[in-house]
């Protein structure tokens, strides 16, 4: 059976494929956000502004619900493959006597796929489900080699765990297909020839040329039963806990095909054949994000976790008076100074983000807008220590069964060294809330609940002294009963910044105590095999060429 003719001498180098980095993942939870029932809009409400505000709020809640956390992804199954190598070309220099010396260029190698980290990411949303390196360009006449395919680099947050779950090569897949089709030896051979060889567009190669080319490709390790680069080493496993100094190779691009000068032999001086590029092995990985914050904030929806994050770190987390304002975990840095204060301490009350936005808008329109004054530089005070703290979506009863934002949230606090429970002081029974939170953490992973170092009774600015005293008393009793009195019970107002010095210092000590002595270096357990090398083509002098 003749080979399918394929003129690539005149095709332009294929543009490397690019894959847009679009968020693709979604929460695994199917349940809807549950929060306090929306306020009834009364017909006789005379304040029109209030009605508008309520409608605006409802619209926002709906938007958040519909979004279902699509911009937070903590689990992704990803197919990774280096780009295919471009094809070589069969071409000849023009000559008065007929065909001149062979001058087909090699195909360019395919682009590789690399992984790198960013300390600013807290979601896998930037990764796509298919990470494919750009295809190498085809070679062309006059020994012009194809361009290298573009590399694909995926950026993931620190704390991403990568597991290889499948490896599949083109040759293995073809063999399985051939078996399924029940092809005989001859048909299999022709299929392989079609896969690997490219003919000159005008001059057909004879059977002898093809057999010789086949032998050469076998010697070069390309014409094999196994896809080049397919190895049987154990699956790759990486736990990225430290920033990567340089991008790490996940899959190498395939080598480019060989131009016809490579097929010159003693017998065949004018090879009418070139070879195609290698299609590298396809690997399937699972990316799982386990955020690495030293401290995790845990609380029911609307307890004031984001307000606390803002007052401790200055990070502009969204604050609003409804449940599930926060859908993505966010990480901030608390810089503890040697006098016990912390660097980003707020200088005014933290208002709801929407109110701040309106105020900004109003003042801009009125022309009296003043940006917030910068915090004075801490010249005399030195930083004693620093730790990271994550604000998480609200936890609900049965979150361990994936209710609410469920596992996605629990996964991200799994590795925190210490936890701080944020309890809404305005709710009737903070002890009950504490028990719910603890039970959910325990149900998700035994021992997680007891990692709590603080029970912060928040929103105490709205409580009477008697009320605070009674609730603190009850919480201390419960902490003693449930957690041997390990977590400190603190009176806090995240909004007005009261009681926070103690929060900072208790957490700083807890983190220092629990921190492992030295971070583990990242090691690539199973380095990928080296790329195939393209040998130098055999030089042919013009006088030796037969016509
Ligand atoms: N009075 C008072 N209100 C507070 C305090 N802390 C938070 N709030 C208010 O409580 C509401 C909820 O605060 P958030 O920080 O968004 O609560 P959250 O726990 O992050 O909520 P979700 O992200 O929805 O789980 C907002 O209106 C805050 O202004 C506080 O100490 N005192
Ligand atoms: Mg929040």
Please state roughly what percent of the residues sit in beta strands, choosing from under 5%, 5-15%, 15-25%, 25-35%, 35-45% or over 45%: 15-25%
Number of helices: 10
The helix content, as a percent range, equals: 25-40%
Q: Give the name of the CATH superfamily of the largest domain.
A: P-loop containing nucleotide triphosphate hydrolases
SS-derived structural category: alpha/beta
Radius of gyration: 32 Å
Query: Which fold name fills CATH's third level, the topology of the largest domain?
Result: Rossmann fold
Read across the widest sheet, the strand sequence of neighbours is 14-15-13-16-17-18
Unreliable segments of 5+ consecutive residues? 1-38, 519-534, 540-547
Ligand types: guanosine-5'-triphosphate, magnesium ion
The assigned CATH architecture of the largest domain is: 3-Layer(aba) Sandwich
The best one-word shape is elongated
Structure summary, number of beta strands: 18
In whole angstroms, how far apart are the ends? 26 Å
Provide mean pLDDT, rounded: 79
* Strand and helix order: HEEEEEEEHHEHEEEEEHEHEHEHEHEH
Overview in brief:
GO terms for molecular function: GTP binding; GTPase activity. The chain has helices at 48-67, 170-181, 185-196, 207-219, 305-313, 353-366, 406-413, 430-444, 465-483, 500-514, and strands at 75-81, 92-95, 98-102, 113-118, 130-132, 152-157, 160-168, 197-199, 237-240, 248-251, 273-275, 282-289, 295-299, 330-337, 383-391, 418-424, 452-458, 488-491.
Describe the structure.
This protein is α/β, with parallel strands linked by helices and 547 residues long. The chain folds into two domains: 216 residues, GTP1/OBG domain (Spo0b-associated Gtp-binding Protein, Chain: A, Distorted Sandwich); 220 residues, Rossmann fold, CATH 3.40.50.300. The strands form five sheets. A six-stranded mixed beta sheet has the order 14-15-13-16-17-18, with helices on both faces. A five-stranded mixed beta sheet has the order 5-1-12-7-9. A three-stranded mixed beta sheet has the order 6-4-10, with no helix packed on it. It binds guanosine-5'-triphosphate (GTP) and magnesium ion (MG). Guanosine-5'-triphosphate (GTP) binds next to helix 5.
């Amino acid at each position: 059976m003749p080979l399918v003719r394929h003129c690539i001498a005149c095709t332009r180098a294929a543009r490397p494929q690019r894959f847009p980095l679009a968020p693709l993942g979604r929460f695994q939870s199917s349940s809807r956000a549950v929060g306090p029932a929306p306020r009834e809009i009364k017909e006789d409400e005379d304040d029109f502004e209030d009605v508008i505000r309520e409608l605006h709020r409802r619209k926002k809640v709906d938007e958040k619900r519909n979004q279902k956390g699509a911009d937070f992804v903590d689990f992704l199954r990803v197919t990774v493959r280096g780009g295919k190598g471009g094809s070589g070309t069969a071409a000849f220099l023009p000559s008065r006597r007929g065909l001149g010396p062979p001058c087909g260029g090699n195909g360019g190698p395919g682009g590789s796929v690399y992984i790198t980290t960013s300390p600013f990411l807290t979601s896998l949303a930037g990764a796509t489900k298919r990470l494919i390196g750009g295809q190498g360009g085809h070679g062309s006449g006059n020994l012009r080699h194809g361009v290298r395919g573009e590399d694909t680099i995926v950026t993931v947050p620190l704390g991403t765990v990568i597991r290889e779950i499948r490896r599949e090569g083109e040759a293995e897949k073809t063999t399985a297909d051939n078996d399924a089709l029940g092809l005989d030896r001859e048909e299999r051979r022709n299929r392989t020839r079609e896969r690997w060889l490219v003919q000159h567009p005008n001059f057909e190669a004879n059977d002898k040329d093809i057999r010789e080319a086949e032998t050469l490709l076998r010697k070069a390790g390309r014409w094999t039963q196994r896809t080049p680069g397919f190895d049987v080493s154990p699956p790759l496993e990486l736990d990225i806990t430290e920033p990567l100094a340089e991008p790490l190779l996940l899959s190498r691009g395939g080598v480019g095909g060989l131009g016809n000068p490579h097929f010159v032999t003693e017998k065949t001086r004018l090879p009418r054949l070139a070879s195609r590029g290698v299609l590298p092995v396809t690997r399937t990985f699972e990316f799982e994000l386990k955020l690495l914050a030293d401290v995790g904030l845990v609380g029911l929806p609307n307890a004031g976790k984001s307000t606390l994050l803002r007052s401790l770190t200055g990070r502009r987390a969204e604050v609003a008076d409804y449940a599930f304002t926060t859908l993505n975990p966010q990480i901030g840095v608390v810089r503890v100074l040697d006098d016990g204060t912390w660097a980003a301490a707020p200088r005014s009350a933290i208002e709801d983000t929407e109110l701040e936005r309106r105020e900004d808008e109003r003042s801009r329109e009125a022309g009296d807008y003043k940006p917030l004054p910068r915090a004075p530089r801490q010249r005399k005070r030195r930083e004693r220590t620093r730790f990271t703290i994550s604000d998480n979506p609200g936890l609900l009863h049965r979150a361990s069964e994936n209710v609410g934002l469920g596992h996605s949230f629990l996964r991200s606090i799994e590795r925190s060294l210490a936890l701080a429970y944020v309890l809404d002081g305005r709710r009737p029974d903070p002890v009950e809330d504490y028990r719910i939170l603890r039970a959910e953490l325990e149900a998700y992973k035994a021992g997680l609940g007891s990692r709590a170092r603080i029970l912060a009774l928040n929103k105490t600015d709205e409580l009477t002294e008697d009320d605070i005293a009674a609730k603190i008393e009850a919480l201390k009793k419960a902490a003693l009963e449930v957690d041997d009195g390990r977590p400190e019970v603190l009176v806090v107002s995240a909004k007005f910044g009261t009681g926070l010095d103690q929060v900072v210092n208790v957490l700083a000590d807890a983190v220092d105590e629990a921190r492992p002595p030295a971070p583990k270096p990242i090691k690539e357990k199973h380095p990928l095999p080296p790329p195939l090398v393209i040998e130098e083509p055999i030089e042919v002098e013009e006088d030796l060429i037969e016509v």
